[in-house]
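G., the chain you wanted modeled:
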Amino acid sequence: MEMVIDFPGGARVDAHFGAYTVSTDQPPMGGGEGSAPTPFAVFLSSIGTCAGIYVLGFCKQRGLSVDGIRIIQRAHTDPLTRMISKVDLEIQVPEDFPEKYRASLVRSAELCAVKKHLETPPAFDVFTKEVSIV
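Predicted structure as tokens:
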């Protein structure tokens, strides 16, 4: 997948791919306007929404309603490194959600492709390339 990243002004940075644009900005204290989430917030949201896709698919395959189901994501930061050290995904289900599916629901969320990529991260190759602007 190829994405084009551009700089529409201020501290905003956008990613364009296919028919989509993901807009990001920095908060005012970081020199931005706070008009969009930060890139890091978008990154973190991809973990929870990816798990959500798997939870949704699990429920749909079994004819289970997703009414009342939600995922609460909590990121824990190491105070020394200021890096995320742990991410909790709490899948909240209504009282009448069948007990026999709860462990399987967790296993389905653990299949998230974003989570799997974090567990086995890709290599990064960052470089410059001179291009002619026409």
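The CA atoms of residues 24 and 36 lie 5 Å apart.

Shout if anything looks off.
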